[in-house]
Amino acid sequence: MTARIGVVTFPGSLDDRDTQRAIRLAGAEPVALWHKDKDLKQVDAVVLCGGFSYGDYLRAGAIARFSPVMEPLIEQAKAGLPVLGICNGFQILTEAHLLPGTMLRNNHLHFICRDQKLRVENAETAWTSDYTAGQEIHIPLKNIDGQYVADQHTLDTLESEGRVAFRYLDVNPNGSNNDIAGVANEAGNVVGLMPHPEHAVEPLIGTGRTDGLPFFTSILKKLVNA
After folding, report:
1. Which of 35, 87, 121, 199 is catalytic?
2. CATH code of residue 134
3. % of residues, the chain, pLDDT over 90
4. Which of 1, 36, 71, 75 is the most exposed place for a label (fewest CB within 10 A)?
5. What is the per-residue pLDDT for 14?
6. Cβ distance 167 to 181 under 8 Å?
7. What is the number of other CB atoms lying within 10 angstroms of the CB of residue 97?
8. Looking only at Cα atoms, what is the longest distance across the chain?
9. Which entry of 49, 121, 138, 196 is annotated as an active-site residue?
10. Which residues does 196 contact at the CB level (< 8 Å), separation at least 6?
11. How many angstroms separate the first and last alpha carbons of the chain?
12. Is Cytoplasm one of the keywords (predicted)?
């Protein structure tokens, strides 16, 4: 029986179908989760996808963090459930304090949509093991609240513990501290990033490359070998 990976849809989510397709291409079974669900349907991992949950009112991810589905997700993530937050999903994970730091409006105050070059900094998390540390990849990026910020102590801790998962290369598109594009929690089961790997899983779309597919093959291999 293959791994079952949940994809949460909030009001305003945009990329849930794309994420489900990426999971299916990797060989796992996507399971649709609704924001009002009070259980996770016994999935093996969860992806919080991109979009503008609840219209980004108050702050991006601030309302979604209190959706009913988040209660079991937070509890199980703290117990080791693999969780990936993409763009708005990353914002939700910081609001839920499953990942450190927070997201602000891009420093240039404009929405951006572009192919973004990244460097893989940590290839030992549940979601990055099919990459190699130092590998350079291209992943689509689209956001307006993508500037990752944290206090100096938090940044120092992330750097010293190797918890910066991805870093922007060539250009910092949003003013993020230390060029950080994605981070992991201490256990490595929770990862968040602003770029969209689900849009880089087939040569026909996105960047024209499949640099995002290893996110989904990484978690599949981890679950199958667990």
Report:
1. 87
2. 3.40.50.880
3. 93
4. 1
5. 93
6. yes
7. 9
8. 47
9. 196
10. 15, 18, 50, 86, 87, 139, 140, 141, 142, 206, 212
11. 13
12. yes
Q: What tokens were used for 151?
A: 């206090």
Instruction: Report the domain count for the chain.
Output: 1
Q: Which residues, in sequence order, are bridge partners of residue 4? A: 29
As a whole-number percent, the residues of the chain with pLDDT over 70 amount to 99
Q: Is the pTM of this model over 0.85?
A: yes
3-state helix, strand, coil in the chain (%, to 5): 30, 25, 45
Give catalytic status of residue 71 as yes or no: no
Q: Quick check: is 49 catalytic?
A: no
pLDDT at position 1, please?
58
Choose, from 35, 95, 138, 198, the residue flagged as catalytic. Answer: 198
The residue range of the domain holding 138 is 4-225
* Torsion 106-178-199-99 (CA) sign: negative
